[in-house]
Amino acid sequence: MGQTFPNQGQEHIAVGAQHAAYNSFPATSGWHYAQPQPWGTFVYEIAPEALVHNLEHGGVVIQYNPSLLKQDVGQLEAIQRRFPNKTVVAPNSQLKVPLALTAWRRLYTLDTLDEPNIVEFIERYKNRAPERFPD
Question: Residue 100, Cβ neighbours under 10 Å: how many?
Answer without folding.
Answer: 22
